[in-house]
Amino acid sequence: MFRRTALSALLLSSIAAAALSGPAMAETPAPFHFKSAAPAEATSLPTLGPGQIRRIAASRYDMFFGGEFASRKLAFFALPDEASSSTKLVLTAQTAISAAPERSRMIVKINGTEVGTAALVAGDPRRMEFDVPAGVVQPGYNAVSMEVDHRHRVDCSIEATYELWTQVDPAQSGFIFNAAPRTALSLVDLMPVSGTADGRTNLRVVLPAGAQMADFDRALKAVQALTILGHFDHPQVEFADKVGTGPGIDLVIGTKSAIAPLVGPASPALSSADPVTVEPGATAERRRLVLTGADAGEINARLAQFIQLAGAEQPVGTPEGLAALANTRGRLLTPGEKVTLSELGYSTKRFDGRYTSNQVNFTMPSDFYPGDYASMYFHMSALYVGGLAPDAALTVKANDKVVATISLSSAREGAIRDQRLPIPFNVLRPGQNTLKIEARLPSRLDAACESVDKASPTVRLAIDENSYLDMQNYARIGRYPDIGVLTSGLTRMAETGSEPTTYLLVPGFDRRAINAAATFTAKMAYASNQVKPLQYTSILPPLDASNVMAFGAYDTLPSELTGRMNLDFVNMRTTSNIKASPLEVAALQTTAIRSDATDSLMASSLQQVDSLGGMFSGPVATATRIAGQLRSKIHDAADKLDVSRLRVMVGADTGEQRFSPATNAAVVVAQDVGRQGGLWTVVAARNMDSLAARTDTLTDANLWNKLGGAVQSFSETGEMLQQHISPREQLFQTQPLTLSNARLVAASWLANNAALYIAALLISAILLGIGTYMVLVSGRRPHA
């Protein structure tokens, strides 16, 4: 990330210096040369050391290519002298035995320029090397894309496509730059470290001996600013008293006299007047960021400058690289905006297989209020071949929920021309969302299943890259409890307009809980692009008016907090092989509607009408008879409604149902609100030793964007086991009051409280009927 003024000038000057000192750049790029590596035993592949390769910023999950077609586009950062040197891309991959080498391949592109194609040979891991032409890699952010095509050896069914995969090893894949190591480092040199530890960025906070909690609080601000500055989408934070090794960044904070033993007396940071200083780390893949001063006051002043710098910087690079970087976070969609699939990073390859699935990310504001009151529209255009099987279909999903299905079965080829597919707002969430397009394309000819060397590929589906999302106006208001609102960066503002401090409760100042809290809040900083005021504490503050985030184990968190939040951690069963009974599972489903709940509400309403007096006994009897008929007609519809909020509002239920985690729940995330606006969030693991690992699982992008509701529990692998939506909801203003937004908020609230809306209509209809009957009776005159 750079400021487009000072740091961009630094880039340009570095490029010029590299051009003068290095060999002259050819007028035309050298022809691409792909060096094929023969299949080798996994143990025979030489390991690429830290100084030999710049790892790709991705995890093994990100580098898994499954199905007949899969693609990834990843951002990577090149320093000025690296961009001007010769570059080689190395990929270490393994392909499933089911893949046919005649029709399975990988196409690699950098900034849209194809740099090579490799056949995917099944068997042991093999190493592929691609020479990158001069001038393709530019200083700043670039994009590397990998498109993988698989075809099965002998099976032409859709089920067989799940057997096809290629796994690229991110630890043994990356770029080799022929550039001399840099000696004078700056903030620019922190960018290449992002995601180089299996998709994670290790941030090790090094504090001198005797550090106080105020030093830990100061370090939290620096960690948040560093995460924002470097676009670290999966930070992994730890506190220590000495520097680390391996890929990552050491963040050394303290007075000059206190950190001198940690950085050495020759450290430039001890004499520098800059807010922060960047130095080489203990190993080739590591960097050191030093924040120091003569005293605490000077450190705080320099920290404020660093935070301001991090918020003001803007990334630079190629258009493809900047787009890949933005799409990793998800592009923010605003009302009235139209965004094409290509702008969101969707790969619109002409597909000749049987099943394909591809998705893109986009972001909604943290105060977005979901509800079935409006929709955004997906305008889709595509071509498909004739002769597809009757079950051929194209399915559009938003956050894994089906929003549209289009049949593709036709004797002739067909076209989908600007078909307007609504995506209701109630399937979207604050923060990052996903749009997935799946296509099942079986053909009647698949039964013959010609061998891959004889089959002629026929394009079955081509999606127009100019298909676009059309965003409509949406409601904006803060609401809690909802974990997804917090993780997207929204916290309730104080009455003065400033953001109140959030207390990070770590019982006993346990270092494991401190690390987990720092990792979680660093991820929040990345998601919100904001540095939040945070403060560690081991004592529970007054709950009703305080914002608290607690990190610990089931048996270490204070019972006062878990009791107020109705979390049953005390009675957790320790036998992990006992599954919850169906009755226990049903008890946790608060959205399930029972007919007796509807009946009791109706009876309660009629009893209130009966209390109007004996003079209305006749009309009441008539109204009761009418209500009984109406009740029988709406009974089926009521079974689909969530009346839990209505029961809370009318006093039939407190809404305080105790939550007991499933037996195999490895981590629980919960949220609740206090009577005076306090917001409480709990992250609890089975034990303290596993807390950091479970928090790391939560902050992975594939799970972070699924956090939502009032309570969730997850297994060790990140599978969601339980989710509870609170019937109590508190709203607070985040936008200037306008009639348009107020109307949308009201519409969303009514859509989310349909049971209350229907009950109000029923009571109004009953009272209107009574009033009409009384007018007719009292106004009737005998005929002469």
UniProtKB/TrEMBL annotation:
The record's Pfam families line, in alphabetical order, gives: BcsB (PF03170)
Cellular component aspect of the GO annotation:
plasma membrane
Where does it primarily localize?
A: membrane
Q: Where in the cell is it found?
A: Cell inner membrane; Cell membrane
Q: How does it sit in the membrane?
A: Single-pass membrane protein
Keywords attached to this Swiss-Prot or TrEMBL record, sorted alphabetically, are: c-di-GMP, Cell inner membrane, Cell membrane, Cellulose biosynthesis, Membrane, Signal, Transmembrane, Transmembrane helix
Question: Which InterPro entries is this protein grouped with?
Answer: Cell_synthase_bac
Q: Which GO terms describe its biological process?
A: cellulose biosynthetic process; UDP-alpha-D-glucose metabolic process
Q: Give TM regions.
A: 754-776
Q: Which residues form the signal peptide?
A: 1-26
Lineage top rank: taxon: Bacteria
Q: Where does this protein act, in terms of pathway?
A: Glycan metabolism; bacterial cellulose biosynthesis
Would the keyword Transmembrane helix be found if you checked this record's keyword annotation? Answer: yes
Self-association state and partner proteins as the record states = Tightly associated with the cellulose synthase catalytic subunit.
Assigned protein family: Belongs to the AcsB/BcsB family.
Q: What does this protein do?
A: Binds the cellulose synthase activator, bis-(3'-5') cyclic diguanylic acid (c-di-GMP).
Q: Under what name is this protein listed?
A: Cyclic di-GMP-binding protein
Q: Could you read off the lineage of the organism from its UniProt record?
A: Bacteria, Pseudomonadati, Pseudomonadota, Alphaproteobacteria, Hyphomicrobiales
